[in-house]
Each structure stands twice: as C-alpha cells, then as structure tokens.
Amino acid sequence: MIMPGILSHYYENSAGPFSNLSVLPLEQAEQILEEIRRNGNRFASQRAADYLKKRFALEIKIRKLFEEKGGKPKLARPHYMILGTCPWVREWYVDGQELQIKLALIPKDRVSFTYGDSFPAMNYRDGKPYRGQVYIESELEEIIKRYGLPQEWNPDGKGGPERYIEAQVWDDVPLKEYLRVDC
Question: pTM for the whole thing?
C-alpha cells in the first residue's frame, strides 16, 4: 500500500479553512460551540457538553507524546488535517469545502498523526495497538502496511471509529496562505 503524499482539510465554507475552536479561550470556544449546537446543522452540533475541556486536555497529551518522539511543535494547539483524502467528511458541513497540501511541504518535526480521529484514537480502550499512540511521519508507512488506510477499509464506519489517519499540524507557517491571520 502506498502512503498518500497529501494532507486534506475539510471545512465549512462560511468559516474558512483552519477555523479551530481550540485556539480560542475556553469560554469563547464554548459560546461558539453552543451556537453550533443550537443551529444543529453541522457535525459539531452533536458534541457533548464537556467536549472542549476534553479536547483541550487531549491536545496537551498529543503534543507531549509528539515532543517525546522528537517533534518540535510551534503551536500550543494543532491544525487538523487528514492523511490522503476522505470526501465523506465534507458531509459534516452545510457547505463543505476541501483543500489539499502536499505532505512534503510540512516539516517532519511539525506534524504528528493518530490512527483515526484523535478523539477516539486517544480515548477508546479496546485493546487495539494503535490506541493512545501518536506517530511521526517516518512511522506511517509501517502503520499503513500493518493496518491499512481506514478510509479504504472502513469508509462507512461499520468497522469502528477509525475512518482516516488524522494529521496534527503544529505550525502556522506551512499553512499561512490559508489562515486568516498573519503568522
């Protein structure tokens, strides 16, 4: 199996790419998430009341594990992408959009990966060997060889929560042309 050479990002057109609640203070992020819940028209509207507190703690854990493997994150909170493509993610949004960036444009010490979305990948306790793990790019080929690309073997989610390999980009610079603020 060939490792994809791109990272994809899916987002709501009206919000623009890389609009991440995690970069906001918790109170402000909670207010925005509550508005999304009231509208009920996005995937995020289904998130639990304590989601953001758990997300913030999870990001700290992922960052620490990444640093232990030699990662040099420049951000406290990552930008989220998917290794390869996963077009059904556009369905999470009212007017879903996709952008792609070559993986080679992201410095290797600025991107970490989880096998599956980081939330279930880091929280589920079902004995699967990739749970609770953070990977670096040099480990991906072996991981894909061993387990496959989730978007290929589990496109409908019937095989569990693994539906893609998530990439956490820990630097604004490689994404600067897509960000709404200066780096």
Answer: 0.85
